[in-house]
Amino acid sequence: MKYARVYADDVKVGDELPPLVKGPIQQIQLTRYAGASGDFNPIHQDDEFARAAGMGGVFAHGMLSMGFVGQLVTDWAGPGQVRKLGVRFAGLVRLKDTITCRGRVLAKSSNDDVHLVDLEVWAENQKGDKVVTGKATVTLPTRD
Amino acid sequence: MPIQLNKALVGREFPPFVVTIERGKIKEFARAIGDANPLYLDDRVGQASEWGDIIAPPTFMTTFREAGGDGADFLRELGTDISRLLHGEQEFELHRPLKPGDTLLCRSRILDIYEKTGRSGPMGMVLRETVAADKTGEIVGTMRHITVVRL
User: Fold this and answer.
1) For residue A89, what is the nearest residue in chain B, using CA coordinates?
2) Which one of B34, B40, B50 has the shortest CB-CB distance to A22?
3) Which residues contact residue A7 at a Cβ distance below 8 angstroms, ignoring those fewer than 6 apart?
């Protein structure tokens, strides 16, 4: 199922994307993401700093969780098919959290030869709390 | 008395900056997310693909930052500091995938600053947009993000 090619013909409104499970989140991944993204906010690295800032300890970059949601979409639709991805960060992701990304098809449309599929996407932690909610639009090929 | 954000910064345009997308940076970014998709990591798979090269994950534009700028000056002018920031919302619009060697001119500006009361009290919201265009001037990607300032 990984990296499957999806065709617009086969997609129906209400279809669910195969869930993507990421984590448990470890400090080293936050450090790695800081280096890769350039976001060195110490609130994701330094527990003392995060506590002093009133956050109760370090938490993950929202953009890391958005990256997971991006992977949910690209594992299904293929990389390069994403036209739009927008999210709201609804809750903090903590160390040791396991994040499950999910999505479903909201709508399909076509103009000329471009076939667009709108998705509802979200990510939740091991307690079922939503940490990211959002929408994506992908373009899909047809079988012919 | 909660801190006041400097709303005079609405409409502020930052100096344009140029980003050249590096092959290694794409791979580093994909690996940091834990996404082993070969279209991000394997040059041969990229060359054989419809894109002719590896491409960047959809959130890669988040790495576009002014060289050397950590934003501390802007935060001071806004009336806050990094310890009070949270990421509220983020959006990417992509017209095509980004590839190694793409040289993009990025223009960033503040679209809005407003206040809101959240679960944990008063919050300032700062909406910023960055538009990236290629050498022909064609827009290849736009990102908008809302930074939340805990007031």
Assistant:
1) B88
2) B34
3) A140, A141, A142, A143
Check A79 against B58: CB less than 8 A apart: yes
Q: In this complex, how many residue pairs, one in chain A and one in chain B, have their CB atoms less than 8 Å apart?
A: 115
Q: Residue ranges of the domains in chain A?
A: 1-24+65-144, 26-59
* Predicted ipTM of the assembly: 0.96
A127-131 long-range contacts, Cβ below 8 Å, gap at least 24?
Answer: A129/A91, A130/A90, A130/A91, A131/A65, A131/A89, A131/A90, A131/A91, A131/A92, A131/A93, A131/A97, A131/A99
Correct CATH for B7-22+58-150 of 3.20.20.20, 3.10.129.10, 1.20.1560.10, 3.50.50.60: 3.10.129.10
Q: Which CATH number fits domain A1-24+65-144: 3.40.50.150, 3.10.50.30, 3.10.129.10, 3.40.50.300?
A: 3.10.129.10
Q: Which of A10-14, A25-29, B83-87 has the lowest mean pLDDT?
A: B83-87
Q: What is the predicted pLDDT for the residue at A82?
A: 97
Q: How far is B9 from chain A (nearest CA, A)?
A: 22
Substitution target from B3, B35, B96, B144 for chain A, most A beta carbons within 10 A: B35
In tens, the pLDDT along B39-61 reads: 999 999 999 999 999 999 999 99
Mean pLDDT for chain B overall: 93
Helices H, strands E: what count in chain B? 4, 5
Residue B139 reports pLDDT greater than 80: yes
pLDDT digits (tens, 9 = 90+) for A13-68: 999 999 999 999 999 999 999 999 999 999 999 999 999 999 999 999 999 999 99
Chain B CB contacts of A139 below 8 Å: none
pTM of the model: 0.96
Angle at B27 (CA atoms; ends B14, B51), nearest 5 degrees? 85
